[in-house]
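Figure-free illustration: sequence to structure, shown twice.
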Amino acid sequence: MPNRVVNLAEEGARIDAVWQGSRDRQVPLPVAAAFAFRRLHEGADQTVPLLSYRSDLDLVAAALSRHCSIFSSLADGEPLTLLTINLRNQRFANGGTELQCIDDGFFFNRLSVLREEIPPAIALMKRAGLTLNCQNFPVQRTRHLHARE
């Protein structure tokens, strides 16, 4: 896997098709993170290392968790549970597909977010000056992102 790359133009087109192809109220968090990433990233025509892309999706998932409700279920079709995210003790991993608890190693998967909360969160991140460049860290953060109350 160390040499695998992601073509951001192809990945962006795939994510846009997934986003537009469904009107479900709940969106998988990795899809929402990739959708937001596409709108925050500079250089959408790049080919980047897969590990850097996944790491940036983790960052976007963390940013989304400050502004959106994040849900999980134990299995497909099971009821959703609203999660309380604490980024001091938890971290997103594997491209936003998991929320790992640092203290005990427990993790949540099958993460989702409400579709209607994504565009306002992206707008807030843009206003705050958050941009990404697939190098495992934000390029610029000009203002503090406020957590949801």
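We now fold a second protein in the same way, so the two outputs can be compared directly.
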Amino acid sequence: MLNILKNNRIQNLLLLLMLATILFFVASFFVEISIFFGFLLFVLIYIFIISFYYPFFGVLSFLLIRPLLDFSTDYKLFSFASWSINLASLMGLMVLIIALWYLIFRHKEVKKSKILYLWVLFIAINVLSLLVSFDISLGI
């Protein structure tokens, strides 16, 4: 057996990725979405799950994939109330959730590294950018 699979953290990550794949497969029968946007959404969900285990690589992946989502502002995934959610706004919400999770559950590491103020500034800018982009026709 591979030594990598003996690590409990990696086993949990692989299990979550498999469950996300199965859930995404089942949901694809009920939701009409193009293959390309479905693939991008699938990649975003994978990066989101990986970010809880390896936050550095998750946020780095979000930063690298962000330019790919610029063209998707007209394509909405879903809407609630008067807001429509596209891939870019969904990714912004995912990064906000990851940042808050890291700040709450790993606050001892953040305090030791003396970047607490930078994390708070990052979260504040993220929240403000979501509030500024509340345009019903373009998405969040």
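Summary for the second example: The chain has six helices and two strands.
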